[in-house]
What we know:
Elements: H1 34-51, H2 57-64, E1 71-75, H3 81-86, H4 88-91, H5 96-104, E2 110-117, H6 122-142, E3 150-154, H7 160-167, E4 170-178, E5 189-195, E6 206-212, H8 219-236, H9 247-252
Parallel strand pairs: 1-3, 2-3, 2-4
Antiparallel strand pairs: 4-5, 5-6
Helix pairs in contact: 6-8
Subcellular location: Bacterial microcompartment
Subunit structure: The basic unit is a heterodimer which dimerizes to form tetramers. The heterotetramers trimerize; 6 large subunits form a core ring with 6 small subunits projecting outwards.
EC number: 4.3.1.7
Amino acid sequence: MKRNIPQEIEPLKALQEFTSARIAIGRVGTSIPLKQSLDFKLAHAHARDAVYSVLNIDHLRESLTRFELPVLHLHSQVADRRQYLQRPDLGRRLNQDSLDQLRDLTTVSSDIAIIVADGLSATAITENTLGLLKELIPLLTTSNYKLAPITLVEQGRVAIGDDIGYGLKAKLSLVLIGERPGLSSADSLGVYLTYKPKPGLTDEMRNCVSNIRPKGLTYKKAAKKIFYLINEAFIRKLSGVELKDNDGLLDAH
């Protein structure tokens, strides 16, 4: 039996090819079809699982050895996942052991500190970090940027990159972090760029490239965009709201 599609839904069907958002799903009476209802509940479960997922530190550390950089394991001031969700402020600062670890490290100044933090989806970090860095790090090294040790951070928020970048004497911090899971993207990775990181900075000092994943912004395109922003940050000696992403405009001309 052919399913009747309401007239107002039919023009939107073609858009399903371009998005994973729930559009033109139809209805049964005053509700949505059973399959779409079950799909929604499954996506919601995946999103909740992503929020409570944990980093596999050993696996990540082993994967990152291919880049021939030291790898540090740090932790925020958060004690557990429940506290992480209730106290965002504690996820923005390193705990004392991690601060001591950075302080005891013999560190010379570097250009870029790459920081990998679980954020709100360790799943996104596990699935996307290596793919992105395989595209990005060669761009950085061939351009003679000096890289600090890579840091893996548990229970971290974006601003924790300020403590780490400052502690590693880096001119720029690059935070790879799991984004808040959506109902069609529990694996979305975000990258935050901050020039001259130091404790106490606020979000207007950062640039963000988001939705990095195979079904979103691909690793190659994301690496190109991040590399462009890094170059612009070093040229203009700033980041955040004053640093505009004009990469697409340049391509258009």
